[in-house]
């Protein structure tokens, strides 16, 4: 396939702020059974969105009808790839609000940067769309709670994109923990050891042709454009991302809470910093967080390391659960092993995956939230524990937290970090 420059791609797009190609011919839904064929729009298609496209297109009686991205170049490239792969054209939109106005779209799949996840999902719920939203479900705790409220108020199916929730092996592993295979489970250790290089400091530069920079920033405060943000390294800036604990780490925070059978903690301690690179990242390269549950006698330890490091019992990204009769190692999304007794005798083990997109669509068709493996309530919790760790790190002190009110009692400074300043028209509504 020819490599197009940004200018080449823009020349091929239709004029105007919204590049639109012809819709494909739609086979009447009666051919598949009434209301059975689902039309999905994928919003944010540069990174994880590519997996969303292929994940939904492989499903039975499902059509990815619209692609949406604030970058016209990415949008045109992905639409071209889509047509070659699937022999059909797809509608393109630059503004997600246009997607929500389309009454023919049944569900949206959101793979934007973190700072857009909750608002994009709330707007979708308000527009009557079911939602698959990437991790983390929210950029801060306030957003997560409002998204849960929106899903409930508008009775929408909202799946959090932590695919290990649909893994047959991990589901079996959790059952072993509940059934007492390793005894009393008192600690989970989450690990994120990813290769995160020096990103330098590119400074401000002109906004590239085709990119709607205002729309990209959305709910965040206005900054000058920099290539350090777009399209991936936004993860390392507080306005847009949440560091690696809020990036890769949400898979593991979700699993830690699931395995321990706990909600949000009462005490949080975090420490870390930047020790490797003198670049412009704002988030810590190394972060060690501890989440205490004194009433339940449980604890979560979480560690992010970015470069040269050892594995822990074979784990680079995953969780280790500790009980009084053994321990369980979960490596990645689909693999677990157990070791029992003082001599660490091998116990049950399995490697098997699942299909998180399929699970979402089953719930959508049945209009039954109970079928979801990753309901938005779990997404809010998994993201929130990561946010709590970041807040403790940024304030440099141990924090006391009330899981019932989702606030820091008597701590004005910490409570101010539960939300952010928003800018019109990209406002998280107080009442969804």
Automatic annotation (TrEMBL):
Single GO MF annotation: nucleotide binding
Domain Gfo/Idh/MocA-like oxidoreductase bacterial type C-terminal: 177-255, 356-427
Highest taxon above the source species: Bacteria
InterPro entries (UniProt xref): Gfo/Idh/MocA-like_OxRdtase_N, Gfo/Idh/MocA_oxidrdct_glycsds, Gfo/Idh/MocA_OxRdtase_bact_C, NAD(P)-bd_dom_sf, TAT_signal
Domain Gfo/Idh/MocA-like oxidoreductase N-terminal residue range list: 38-161
UniProt protein name: Gfo/Idh/MocA family oxidoreductase
């Amino acid at each position: 396939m020819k490599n197009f420059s940004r200018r080449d791609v823009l020349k091929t797009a239709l004029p105007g702020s919204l590049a639109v190609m012809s819709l494909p011919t739609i086979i009447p839904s009666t051919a598949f059974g009434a209301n059975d064929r689902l039309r999905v729009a994928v919003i944010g298609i540069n990174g994880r969105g590519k997996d969303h496209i292929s994940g939904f297109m492989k499903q039975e009686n499902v059509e990815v009808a619209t692609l949406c991205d604030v970058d016209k170049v990415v949008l045109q490239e992905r639409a071209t790839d889509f047509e070659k792969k699937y022999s059909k054209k797809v509608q393109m939109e630059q503004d997600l609000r246009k997607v929500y106005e389309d009454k023919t779209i049944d569900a949206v799949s959101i793979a934007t940067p973190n700072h857009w996840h909750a608002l994009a999902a709330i707007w979708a719920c308000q527009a009557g769309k079911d939602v698959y939203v990437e991790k983390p479900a929210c950029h801060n705790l306030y957003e997560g709670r409002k998204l849960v409220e929106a899903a409930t108020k508008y009775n929408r199916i909202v799946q959090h994109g932590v695919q290990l929730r649909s893994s047959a092996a991990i589901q079996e592993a959790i059952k072993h923990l509940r059934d007492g295979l390793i005894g009393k489970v008192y600690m989970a250790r989450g690990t994120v050891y990813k290769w995160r290089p020096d990103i330098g400091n590119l400074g401000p530069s002109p906004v590239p042709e085709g990119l709607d920079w205002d729309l990209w920033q959305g709910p965040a405060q206005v900054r000058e454009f920099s290539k350090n943000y777009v399209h991936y390294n936004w993860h390392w800036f507080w306005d847009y991302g949440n560091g690696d604990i809020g990036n890769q780490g949400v898979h593991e925070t979700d699993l830690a809470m699931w395995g321990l059978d706990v909600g949000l903690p009462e005490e949080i301690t975090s420490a870390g910093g930047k020790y490797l690179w003198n670049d412009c990242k704002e988030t810590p390269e190394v972060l060690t967080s501890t989440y205490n549950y004194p009433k339940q006698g449980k604890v979560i330890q979480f560690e992010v390391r970015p470069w040269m490091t050892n594995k822990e019992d074979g784990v680079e990204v995953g969780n280790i659960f500790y009980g009084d009769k053994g321990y369980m190692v979960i490596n990645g999304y689909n693999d677990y092993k157990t070791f029992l007794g003082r001599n660490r005798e091998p116990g049950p083990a399995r490697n098997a995956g699942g299909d998180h997109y399929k699970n979402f669509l089953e719930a959508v068709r049945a209009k039954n939230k109970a079928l979801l493996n990753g309901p938005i309530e779990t997404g809010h919790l998994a993201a929130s524990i990561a946010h709590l760790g970041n807040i403790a790190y940024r304030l440099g002190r141990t924090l006391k937290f009330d899981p019932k009110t989702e606030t820091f009692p008597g701590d004005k400074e910490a409570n101010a970090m539960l939300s952010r300043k928003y800018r019109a028209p990209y406002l998280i509504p107080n009442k969804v």
